[in-house]
Amino acid sequence: MPERRPNSDALLASVGREEARPRRGRLKVFFGMCPGVGKTYAMLRAAQQELLDRVDVIVGVVETHGRSETEALLVGLPVMPRKQIEHRGITLTEFDLESVLASKPRLVLVDALAHANVPGSRHRRRYQDVTELLDAGIDVFTTLNVQHLESRADAVRQISGVPVQETVPDSVIELAEQIELVDLTPVALRERLADGKVHLGDGAATAAENFFKETNLTALRELALRFVAERVDKQLRELRATGAPHAVWRSGERLLVAVGPSPFSTQLVRWTRRMAAAQAAAWMAVSVESSRQLAAEARRRLEQNLALARELGAEIVVTHDEDVAEALVRVALQHNATQIVVGKPRTPRLLNVLRGGSLVDRLLRRSGSIDIYVVPGERAAGKSTVHLEWEPPQPAPAREFIEVFAALAALSVASSFLVSYIGYLAVGLLYLLATIALSLRVGRWPVLVAGVVSALSWNFLFIPPAFTFQIAKFEDGMMFATYFAVALIAGQLTARIRDQERHERLREERAMALFHLTQALSAARSLDEGVFAALRQADAIFSGKSALLLGGLDDNALASHSASSLALSDQERGVADWVWRNRKKAGRFTDTLPSAEGFHVPLVREDTALGVFVIAVATDTMLTLAQRDLAESFAAQLALLVESEQFRAAREREKLLAESEKLHHALLDGVSHELKTPLAVLHSAAESLRQADEATRGQLIDEILTATRRLHRLVNNLLDQTRLESGALKPKPDWCDVHDLVNAAREGVGDLLAGHPLETSIPCDMPLFRADFALMEQVIANLFLNAALHTPAQTPVFFAAGVEGARQRVFFTVADRGPGLPATMRDRLFKKFQRGDAARAGGLGLGLSIISGFVAAQGGEVVAGENPGGGAVFTVYLPHAAHASVPNE
Amino acid sequence: MNTPPAKGDILVIDDEVQIRRLLRITLESAGHSVREVETGLLGLDEVARRAPDAIILDLGLPDLPGLEVLRRLREWSRVPVLVLTVLAAESDKIAALDAGADDYLTKPFGGGELLARLRAIMRRAPGGEELAAVTFGDITVDLAARIVRRHEAEVKLTPREYALLRILVVHRGRVVTHQQILREVWGPKSEENTHYLRVHMTHLRQKIEADPHQPRHLKTESGIGYRLVEEC
Question: pLDDT at residue A872 above 90?
Answer without folding.
Answer: no
